[in-house]
């Protein structure tokens, strides 16, 4: 069945077109910025109308009803009261070529789902990010600015579902840089007042810029340098602020947009506020107490006092002695000098120096009083002069250090020269040793025998010539040498066991033939038994030739070699083989027992 004539003649697009013409007519009635709120309201109604008509497209029977509503709405709104103009909120100043991001000040923390429309004097600002000037929610972004951007802008907030709305108007002024400067005076922010010893300047309005970077600071367009300045993100810290730090401080940072860097600057004046004498004077030195002096010597006593802030502070610092001014004292002994100066933090400090050319006994009983005075009040500090007390702690400390140093030197000397020290001690202090120890010989000599090799001849020469000559003839020791001291027909084993027990030392001559000599092995076994088990005998090892560590030595002998070491003999000693003062013989004598009375060597007949 064909549709009715009226339905076929009126489509959804026709109705929508008619409604649009009505609303466009209303929009043309408000061309100026003062009618922005009216424009925005009608624009909002236009959007809602289009949406409702499209949703109702499937309901053909409501076409005429919708058209009737639009005509009625048009007639009703034409007679409604015009909303008030936008509220003036804030002025923005920026340099040409920089980026500016303006936030809608009508927003509150409760505004979550709202419709925001931005307007310029030319009309609605689009939301297209590809454009240089575009709206982005609550922000208006101009990247970068040009001089024709100067003008008025407004943001219109439509709150659903109650349809309440609000409008804020802002003014933007774009300036050109003055030649040779990094800012224009019209762009200055409000001054920062600093009254402390340090100042902090914060780069203004950086919150709206995503990830600002590369902050650089300038004072009067000159880069800041030195340890006095510290840059922490968007903050500049200045240490030791004084009057010379006043000026215009500019922060410059980089804003990155679509891979391109843009400069943004802020300039803030810094003013240093002078302190006045609103504090009591304070004497920094000297404190109440005493001061050490020497009689008949010259002395200067300095009084330093804080009087206030600023160069307009009036104050005085002076000395009196026992209540008398300096003018009333002996001019030949007492003089005064005053000086005032300002510290970098604007503190006024006054210094008074009392100069005494010669200290007398009467000065030790006098009171020296320093007085500081300003408009708030005064402060006094009194000291007395005393003679320096004897400090025994210094002498005790020096003595202790001397003793410790001497003790350390003695230990070092003993470590490196203990052999010579022991031998010298034995030579100087020849007191009689105890003779009731039951010993007859000072040492029992164990060495390989019955071998006619050249090496054995060298050893025989060493034992029977050098060893006996040095230890017996020159040093007075009594040695038992097998083959020399044995009686004819005496049992070798019995003689060795008996005479080793009668000896104070066991001298073992180490050669490569030690494993091939039966007498050597037996004597060695008995001597090492007494040395290691009974601990009744000390062993002296003399190495005539290098012994292989892996040789088949007894474990007891290896133990002694590892623990005490061996005195090494070499062919180079032959030239001074009979000199008891060579290094070799000193080590042998060092390990021998003390011998204070030389004895004649006894030989078996």
Explain the overall architecture.
The chain is α+β, with helices and mostly antiparallel strands. The chain has 10 helices and 30 strands. The strands form 7 sheets. It has a 5-stranded mixed beta sheet with strand order 1-8-7-3-4, covered by helices on one side. It has a 5-stranded mixed beta sheet with strand order 9-16-15-11-12, with no helix packed on it. Strands 18-25-24-20-21 form a 5-stranded mixed beta sheet, with no helix packed on it. Helix 2 runs antiparallel to helix 3 and helix 5 packs across helix 10.
Supply the CATH class of the largest domain.
Alpha Beta
Q: Give the name of the CATH superfamily of the largest domain.
A: Toll/interleukin-1 receptor homology (TIR) domain
Beta-strand content estimate: 25-35%
Assign the CATH topology of the largest domain. Answer: Rossmann fold
Keywords:
single chain; 605 residues; alpha+beta; Immunoglobulin-like; 5 domains; five-stranded mixed beta sheet; disordered N terminus; disordered C terminus
Summed up, what is this model?
The protein is of the alpha+beta class and about 600 residues long. The protein is about 25% helix and about 30% strand.
Task: Please give the structural blueprint.
Blueprint: H1 5-9, H2 12-28, H3 36-55, H4 63-78, E1 87-95, E2 100-103, E3 114-120, E4 123-124, E5 133-136, E6 139-142, E7 151-159, E8 164-175, E9 192-194, E10 198-202, E11 213-219, E12 222-223, E13 229-232, E14 235-239, E15 247-257, E16 260-272, E17 282-285, E18 289-292, E19 299-309, E20 315-321, E21 324-325, E22 334-342, E23 347-356, E24 368-374, E25 377-386, H5 392-428, E26 443-446, H6 454-474, E27 479-480, H7 492-501, E28 505-510, H8 518-532, E29 538-543, H9 555-564, E30 567-568, H10 583-591
Parallel strand pairs: 1-8, 9-16, 18-25, 26-27, 26-28, 28-29, 29-30
Antiparallel strand pairs: 2-6, 3-4, 3-7, 5-6, 7-8, 10-14, 11-12, 11-15, 13-14, 15-16, 17-19, 19-23, 20-21, 20-24, 22-23, 24-25
Helix pairs in contact: 2-3, 2-4, 5-10, 7-8
């Amino acid at each position: 069945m064909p549709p009715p004539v009226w339905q076929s003649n009126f489509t959804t697009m026709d109705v929508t077109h008619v409604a649009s013409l009505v609303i466009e007519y209303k929009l043309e009635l408000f061309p100026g910025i003062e009618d922005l709120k009216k424009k925005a309201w009608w624009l909002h109604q236009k959007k809602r109308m289009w949406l409702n008509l499209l949703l109702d497209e499937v309901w053909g029977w409501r076409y005429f009803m919708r058209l009737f509503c639009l005509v009625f709405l048009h007639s009703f709104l034409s007679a409604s009261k015009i909303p008030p103009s936008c509220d003036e909120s804030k002025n923005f100043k920026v340099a040409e070529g920089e980026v500016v991001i303006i936030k809608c000040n009508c927003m509150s923390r409760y505004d979550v789902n709202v419709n925001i429309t931005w307007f310029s004097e030319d009309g609605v600002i689009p939301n297209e990010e590809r454009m240089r000037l575009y709206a982005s929610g609550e922000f208006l972004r101009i990247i970068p600015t040009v001089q024709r951007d100067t003008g008025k802008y407004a943001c219109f907030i439509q709150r659903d579902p109650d349809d309440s709305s609000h409008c804020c108007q802002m003014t933007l002024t774009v300036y050109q840089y003055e030649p040779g400067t990094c800012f224009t005076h019209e762009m200055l922010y409000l001054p920062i007042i600093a009254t402390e010893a340090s100042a902090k300047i914060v780069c203004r309005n950086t919150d709206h810029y995503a990830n600002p970077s590369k902050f650089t600071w300038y004072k009067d367009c000159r880069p800041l340098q030195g340890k006095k300045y510290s840059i922490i993100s968007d903050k500049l810290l200045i240490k030791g602020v004084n009057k010379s730090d006043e000026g215009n401080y500019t922060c410059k940072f980089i804003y990155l947009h679509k891979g391109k860097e843009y400069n943004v600057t802020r300039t803030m004046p810094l003013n240093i506020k002078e302190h006045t004498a609103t504090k009591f004077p304070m004497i920094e030195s000297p404190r109440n107490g005493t001061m050490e002096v020497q009689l008949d010597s010259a002395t200067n006593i300095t009084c330093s006092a804080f009087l206030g802030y600023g160069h307009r502070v009036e104050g005085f610092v002076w000395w009196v002695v026992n209540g008398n001014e300096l003018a009333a004292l002996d001019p030949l002994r007492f003089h005064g000098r005053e000086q005032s100066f300002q510290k970098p933090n604007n503190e006024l400090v006054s210094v008074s120096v009392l100069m005494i050319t010669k200290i007398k006994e009467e000065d030790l009983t006098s009171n020296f009083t320093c007085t500081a005075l300003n408009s708030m009040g005064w402060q006094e500090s009194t000291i007395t002069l005393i003679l320096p007390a004897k400090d025994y702690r210094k002498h005790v400390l020096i003595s202790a250090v001397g003793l410790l140093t001497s003790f350390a030197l003695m230990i070092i000397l003993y470590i490196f020269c203990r052999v010579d020290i022991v031998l010298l001690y034995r030579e100087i202090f020849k007191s009689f040793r105890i003779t009731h120890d039951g010993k007859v010989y000072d040492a029992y000599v164990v060495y390989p025998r019955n071998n006619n090799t050249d090496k054995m001849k060298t050893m025989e020469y060493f034992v029977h010539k050098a060893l006996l000559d040095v230890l017996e003839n020159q040093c007075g020791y009594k040695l038992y040498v097998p083959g020399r001291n044995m009686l004819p027909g005496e049992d070798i084993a019995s003689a060795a066991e008996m005479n080793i027990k009668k000896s104070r030392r066991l001298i073992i001559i180490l050669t490569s033939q030690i494993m091939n000599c039966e007498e050597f092995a037996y004597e060695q076994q008995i001597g090492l038994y007494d040395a290691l088990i009974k601990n009744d005998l000390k062993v002296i090892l003399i190495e005539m030739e290098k012994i292989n560590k892996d040789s088949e030595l007894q474990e007891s002998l290896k133990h002694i070699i590892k623990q005490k070491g061996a005195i090494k003999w070499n062919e180079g000693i032959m030239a001074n083989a009979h000199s008891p003062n060579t290094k070799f013989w000193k080590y042998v004598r060092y390990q021998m027992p003390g011998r204070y009375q030389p004895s004649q060597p006894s030989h078996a007949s």
